[in-house]
Design a protein that fits this description.
- The complex is a heterodimer.
- By secondary structure, chain A is mainly alpha-helical.
- Chain A contains 11 helices and no strands.
- The longest helix of chain A is centred in the N-terminal third of the chain and has 42 residues, at about 40-80.
- In chain A, about 50% of the residues are buried.
- By secondary structure, chain B is mainly alpha-helical.
- Helices cover about 75% and strands about 0% of the residues of chain B.
- In chain B, strands 1-2 form a two-stranded antiparallel ribbon.
- The two termini of chain B are about 15 Å apart.
- The chains are: A mainly alpha, B mainly alpha.
- The interface of A and B includes residues 91, 92, 103, 223 and 270 of A.
């Protein structure tokens, strides 16, 4: 029993880390540009499939490095030519635009790579369990957690210690003033979008190894990411990270005791947070 | 002013005439009566959403959930409780209204994109309930093994079960009553207050309007009519698909409003007609119809943000 719970907590932690990676990117874009990127899941799927296609040529490690970067480039292009055109208009239009893109991305990946599930090869030595009693603790899982910690740590470093991060954080508070002070806001939003999409692409590659590849992989991960943002508090990256891990573990534990409520539990948590602390666990009051 | 009134009256007349005569001409334009019924049902859904989106200015992206609740409420009532179409519609609509009333207080404080995100996330709860509760809802396969029942009026029976044209008029009558109710509400002081909130929330608040309560009311009314539309949709198909509650469905309701024109009373109807006809055509013409639907979203946002009725109106005022 303990082992079963441990197994599910571990699973939940990993799924939660995917949620968190996605949610942090979504949250970055939402805070700076007031855009809910419904196509985020689509970008995640593109990252995963790109890695799948490139693996035979450049190997698993090459795919892990190159695929998220290519996805980010795609993100920069989409932001530059489509999404930036609706900034300053009623937020409704940006939502509909990314909604349409989400449809196109999902159908596009299905058209190019097929609707059936594809196997994504992770190096064999990473897949073997590290210990015989904790059979679920494969090297790949440990590696994923390690990598996510490094990447999120890197992001926090960028956000707190570099000029770019400083400008992004200032922009989320008052974009107009930042613009008046001589920062090119268009470029800032573009780069910020790219960072968010990079995280989605990375989550895609990692998720492909863990969950398998299918066109709906992104659509199934995006709603929990919203829940993670709401629970953690919009505008707080630490909160979003915490929210993602929290709902992942909660779903994992629920899967042991009440499998049919695996997904419902996170929405119950969201309702509780909205009732007790509407701004989210670590969110600032009065922003929304 | 008189000119504008005349224009409004003639639009109303044209819409009424087209809907009333639809069964007589729809075959001649290469379509079929069920598609006409589908358009009326979706138009009711889009107009219900527009009550909140267009007239109160609140960005809801989770309306598919209430559409689906109405559908499941109706289907499950007819299948498990009582084989009566009337009772089914009533239960379905009430279930949707009740769910909206309970969720409302948790979201009315939120605004803008945050409201959109919370509503769409909440909608997913109902999708997962429908998807997971296999024994009762049929899970992934949907709710089957039930049929809409003929309407017994006492002196005569209307066979909406086999006669598609009779069912069309049955739906149209409900549509007319619902739309008249919405129009009445929007013309009342309550409706004017909603428009005031849309135009300037802060000013409305300073004038003593209880903004959150009004938004809650508007949300519940909108979701109730949405559930009614869902109920009719389940009767049309004799089937409920869990995917009708999925979050992607919510976006299609919003695009119907925008495509037709959110600032116009009949706009969502026009949008629904175009969208349903287009989807029907695309899904038979290409397996990649989803991409084209996505493309429609992008094109509408970039080039026709005011929708069809918006274009007409601009021409008329010029």
């Amino acid at each position: 029993m303990t082992q079963l719970i441990l197994f599910n907590v571990m699973n939940g932690l990993i799924i939660g880390a995917f949620y968190a990676l996605m949610a942090i990117g979504l949250s970055l874009i939402m805070s700076l540009s007031d855009v809910i990127n419904f196509a985020h899941g689509g970008f995640l799927a593109v990252g995963a499939y790109l890695a799948y296609t490139m693996t035979p040529y450049i190997g698993f490690w090459g795919g892990l490095i190159v695929a998220p970067l290519l996805t980010a480039v795609l993100g920069l292009i989409v932001e530059k030519f489509l999404i930036s055109r609706v900034y300053g208009r009623d937020p409704l239009y940006s939502l509909l635009l990314t909604f349409g893109l989400a449809f196109i991305f999902e159908d596009g990946t299905r058209y190019i790579w097929g609707a059936q599930s594809l196997p994504y090869q992770v190096p064999g030595w990473l897949m073997s369990p590290l210990s015989s009693s904790l059979f679920f603790l494969t090297g790949y899982r440990v590696f994923m957690i390690f990598l996510i910690v490094v990447v999120v740590g890197g992001l926090f470093f960028i956000m707190t210690r570099t000029r770019l991060g400083l400008r992004i954080r200032a922009g989320t508070l008052d974009l107009e003033t930042v613009s008046v002070l001589g920062v090119n806001v268009r470029v800032l939003r573009n780069l910020n979008f790219g960072i968010g999409i990079y995280l989605a692409g990375l989550a895609g590659v990692l998720a492909a190894g863990q969950l398998g590849l299918q066109p709906t992989i992104g659509a199934s991960l995006i709603m929990p990411s919203f829940v993670a943002i709401i629970i953690g508090g919009l505008g707080s990256l630490t909160g979003t990270l915490l929210g993602g891990l929290l709902i992942g573990v909660a779903s994992g534990v629920t899967a042991v005791f009440l499998p049919s409520a695996t997904e419902a539990v996170m929405y119950v948590m969201m309702a509780a947070v909205l009732l007790i602390r509407p701004q989210g666990l670590l969110g600032e009051e009065g922003r929304f | 002013m008189g000119n504008l009134d005349l224009r409004k009256q003639s639009t109303n007349l044209i819409v009424c005439a087209l809907l009333l005569t639809l069964p007589f001409w729809i075959d001649h334009v290469g379509s079929y009566i069920q598609l006409g019924t589908q358009i009326v049902v979706m138009a009711l859904a889009a107009m219900a959403l527009n009550f909140l989106l267009g007239y109160t200015g609140v960005l809801s992206f989770g309306h598919a959930a209430y559409f689906g609740l109405g559908a499941y409420g109706t289907g499950m009532t007819i299948r498990y409780l009582l084989p009566s179409t009337g009772v089914g519609i009533l239960v379905g609509t009430l279930v949707g209204a009740l769910a909206a009333a309970v969720i409302g207080p948790m979201i009315v404080r939120l605004r803008g994109v945050y409201f959109a995100m919370v509503t769409i996330a909440f909608g997913q709860v109902f999708y997962f309930i429908a998807f997971r509760w296999n024994d009762v809802t049929g899970g992934d396969d949907g709710l089957t093994n039930w049929k809409r029942m003929p309407i017994d009026l006492g002196f005569t029976t209307v066979d909406i079960q086999h006669n598609a044209t009779a069912f069309y008029y049955f739906v149209l009558v409900i549509f007319a009553v619902a739309v008249a109710l919405m129009a009445f509400l929007l013309r009342s002081p309550f409706g004017r207050t909603l428009i005031a909130i849309r135009e300037n929330e802060r000013r409305a608040r300073f004038m003593g309007v209880n903004v959150n309560f009004h938004i809650w009311m508007s949300w519940v009314i909108s979701c109730t009519f949405m559930a009614l539309a869902g109920s009719l949709s389940s009767l049309l198909n004799n089937f409920v698909d869990p995917r009708s509650l999925f979050w992607t469905q919510s976006g299609t309701f919003v695009i119907m409003c925008v495509m037709g024109g959110m600032r116009s009373f009949w706009g969502p109807l026009v949008g629904a007609a175009i969208f349903v006809a287009l989807q029907d055509y695309l899904s038979s013409a290409t397996p990649n119809w989803q991409s084209f639907v996505g493309l429609v979203f992008v094109i509408v946002v970039l080039f026709f943000p005011r929708g069809v009725m918006g274009i007409f109106r601009r021409k008329a005022t010029e």
